[in-house]
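ok trying this again, last paste got cut off
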Amino acid sequence: MSGQMSEEELEELREGFDKFDVDKNGHITCTEIGNLFSEVGVSLPGYRIREMIQEVDLDENGTITFDEFFNMFKQLKDSRVAQSFMTALNKKEGIVAIGGTSENTNEGTTHSMSEQERFAFANWINSSLEKDPDCKHFLPINPNTDALFTAVGDGILLCKIINFSVPDTIDERTINKKKLTPFTTQENLNLALNSASAIGCQVVNIGAQDLREGKPHLVLGLLWQIIRIGLFADIELSRNEAIAALLEEGESVEDLMKLSPEELLLRWVNFHLKKVGMSIKNFSGDIKNSEAYFNLLQQIAPDGSKEDVPRVDVDMHGLNAKDLTKRAEYMLEQADRLGCRQFVTATDVVRGNAKLNLAFVATLFNKHPALTKPEDQDWTLESETREERTFRNWMNSLGVNPFVYHIYGDLQDALVILQLYDRIKVPVDWDNRVNRPPYKAIGAHLKKMENCNYAVELGKTSAGFSLVGIGGQDLYDGNATLTLALVWQLMRRYTLNVLEDLGDGEAAGDELIINWVNKILAEAGKTSSIKSFKDKEISTSLPVLDLIDAMQPESVNFDLVKTGSLSEEDKLDNAKYAVSMARKIGAKVFALPEDLVEVNPKMVMTIFACLMGRGMKRV
C-alpha cells in the first residue's frame, strides 16, 4: 500500500462504497462499515470499527464520506485485509472466480476473470489482426468460448499484438511461425514476455508455462496491459498538440502535461459535453444511461470539412428508449458508423465496466478527437527521448505505482523512486519518513519535498550513489539531467544486483561483464570481441549476435546479418535483429536498437549485462 491507487482500483473502491452505502445518503455508518468487514471475512469488534471511523472522520459527524473511506482503506497496514476489500468489491455480475496462479505466486489464490473482458479482447484481436497471414491458424477467435486462452499458447498472437500496440518492438524475423515445437514455442513466449516488459508491462508473475496453459486471469491481465499501452500512446501533448485545446483558465501547458491519459480522456469528454450543458466524473456510473455517450458522439462526428472523411449525422432518437440496454445498443450503432464500436457491448455500458468503457472512450479519441490547437499558443514541445522512454518502461515493468506516463511529473513526489530503492534492496522507512497521498492542498509541496529530500539522502548514504550537485528540489522541479542521473544509477544497480544474485556474491561491474563476454566469445570460436562498452565495433551488432549464438548455438540466422562495409540502415537492421534475438533467448533487454547503432555506453552495458545474466542462469 506504499504507492498510489490506480484509476481502476479507485473506481472499484467507489463502487464498493456505493454498494455498502445501503441507505444511499453518501455516508457510511458504523453499522454499514461492520457489514463491509463481515463480508470480507474480517471480524472486528464494534469499538475498533468506531476507532477507525474516528481516525478518518475529519468532520467528526460519526459517519464517513467516500474521501474518508478512501483514506481509511489507504491506511490499512494489513495487506490481507486490503486484498480482501478488493476481492469483495469485485463480486459483481459478469465476474467468474478462477482458481490457480502463476508458478511464481502462491498456490491456491483465487483470481477473478471477467467474461466481458474475454469477449472484448477477442473481438479487438479479430479486428486488429484479421489481415495478418501469420494469424490464420487461430483467427477468428470465438469470443464466447475460451478460445482466446488457447490462442496465446504458441506466442505468435502476443508478439503480433505487441507490434500492433507499439510498432517495430519485435523484429518479425525472430518470430518462429512454422512447424512449431515445444522449444520454438518457448522461444516465442520468451520473446513476447521480454518484449512486453520492454514496453512497460509488468510481467514478473507471468511465466511462459502460464501462457501455454492459458491461465485466464494472467492472459487477460497481460492482454489489457498491451492493449492499454497502445490505446494511450497518442494521448499526450507532445504527440498531439491539439490537446492544448483542453487547457482550462489559469493553467499552463506544464499543468496539462502532468495529467494521466485517463485524466485527459475525462477532460476531453467534458470539453465536448460542456457544449450541451453536461459533464461526467467517471467512466463507470456516469455513463450507464448512455446520455453522455450519445452527446459525445454527436459532438465529435465528422462534419464533412475534411477531404476523404464523409459527414456523419448521429441519430439521437435512441435516447428516447426507456430500457437502458436498448438505449446503449442504439448508441453503439451510432458509434459503429464512426468506426468505433470496439471494446464494449450494451451490457458493459449499462453495468459501467470502467476498464472497457475507458478503452471505448480512448478509441473514440484516437479516431475522432475533434480538437484544434489554439492559435494563440506560442510553444513547441519536445517528444520523449529514447533514454526517457527506456527508463520509464523499465520502471513500469517493475510494477511501480502509480504507472509512470510522464517521467518527470510522475516522479515529483519521489514515491516511484522510493519504490525503486526497495527493488535494489535499499531499505526505505515507509512508516516514518515517507509521506503518502492523497496530499492536502495546504502543505502538499512540503510533503513532496520531504520525500524528494529523503530519496536523495538514501542515494547518497545507503545506496552509495554519486549524486554531487543533486538535491530534492531537482527531483521536485523535474530537472531532466539530474533526475535521469539518479534513475540511471538505480537501473544500473538493479541490473548488477541480478548478476550478483546469480553469481557467488562477487561485486559486478563493467570489467567483470566485459571479461565474461570475451570469454564466452572466445570459447565458442567467435572472432569478435569488445574492448569496452564504447567499442565502435558494437555499432554493427556483430559482437551481440555472436554472443547470442555462442550462448545458444545455431539460434542466429547469419544469412539475415549484414557484414562488411555497413550503412546506417544496415546497422539498424542488424541492431533490430540483435535486440529481438536477445529477448528471444530469455534476456530481459530494455535498450533500443538505436542504442547499439550509436554505441550508447549506458544502454550497451545493460544489454551485455542482461545477456550475462541469462548465460549464468544456464550454468
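PB: full thing came through this time. The CA atoms of residues 426 and 463 lie 6 Å apart.
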